[in-house]
Amino acid sequence: MWRGGGLGGERSRTRLKWNEGKRKEEVEEERGGGTNERTNERTNERTNERTNERTNERTNERTNERTNERTNERTNERTNERTNERTNERTNERTNERTNERTDGRTDGRTNERTNERTNERTNERTNERTPMTY
């Protein structure tokens, strides 16, 4: 090791002498990894975390969009079914009303005819009873 001289120079000369003939990687392996390596690991971890967060956000957005689409489809189907049921009920009510009106008209006529026939028969019978028969 070198001794003497100024602060910065002494350290760098010492390091150079001590590391002589070795590659930077070999020296860092002997010392258990360099500062840069540890710093890079931490930086990479944070970068990866941020990247993963962004990726997850985008994935979640896409998943949510798909889920919402399916939910909306199901909701729309149910809404449409209910709307169709209500429309059909209203249509059926109107059809029934029209049918009933027509039927009532016909039934009333028929009922009245029958009632009139019976009334006329009774009236005729009474009239016949009172009127003597001529041969």
TrEMBL record:
Origin organism lineage: Eukaryota, Metazoa, Ecdysozoa, Arthropoda, Hexapoda
Official protein name in the record: Protein stu1
UniProt biased composition (Basic and acidic residues): 10-129
Top-level taxon in the UniProt lineage: Eukaryota
Source organism: Melipona quadrifasciata
Region ranges (Disordered): 1-135
